[in-house]
Amino acid sequence: MLCALIQNNTVTAIIDLSQDQIPILGAIFEQVIDITSLNPQPIVGWLYDGSNIYNSTWKITKLAFESRLTTAEEAGIIGFALANYNNTGNPTLQGQALTIFALLRRQSNATYVDLQRSDTIAGVNALVSFGLLTSGRATTILTTPPALSEIYNG
């Protein structure tokens, strides 16, 4: 059976075990839990609260982060940045456009997006302050727990 080995309330390993191996590893680990039938399947790093194993990571792939935006939102953000990049007549709009380009550059250089990092939150909130996202959409983008397909596994 597929089992999660729990230490410090964290899944530290996932291995196939026979029924007779469970007590042996149970003497070493805090918990050995049969996860064969769980869907989604836990991965190393998930947490155990005494009764449930759950996703503890808020690190998602860059594509997953971009996919949290609708096509219209993404087009609006890029369109706004392109339209105002050279807007010397309105330094505020030009500054907002440059901020967007800086955020996009930072994301393109990142390995993953951590939805709980302060700079990620600040970047999404900047889009709200520029009128490019609603505060409700920003909250949804930042606080929806990552689906298994979104999690960065690097």
If you had to describe this structure to a student in words, what would you say it looks like?
This protein is an alpha+beta fold. It has 2 domains: 2-54, no CATH class; 59-143, no CATH class. The protein is built from 6 helices and 7 strands; from the N terminus they run ββαββββαααβαα. The strands form 3 sheets. A 3-stranded antiparallel β-sheet has the order 2-1-3. A hairpin with a 2-residue loop joins β1 (2-7) and β2. The model has no long low-confidence stretch (mean pLDDT 93).
Write the layout of secondary structure elements.
Layout lengths: L1 E6 L2 E7 L5 H5 L4 E4 L12 E2 L4 E2 L4 E2 L1 H6 L3 H14 L6 H19 L3 E2 L3 H12 L5 H9 L11
Helix pairs in contact: 3-4, 5-6
Search tags:
154 residues; alpha+beta; two-stranded antiparallel ribbon; 7 strands; 42% helix; rod-shaped
At a glance:
This protein is of the alpha+beta class and 154 residues long.
* Strand order, largest beta sheet: 2-1-3
Task: List the total number of helices.
Answer: 6
Order of helices and strands: EEHEEEEHHHEHH
Taking the alpha carbons of the first and last residues, their distance comes to: 26 Å
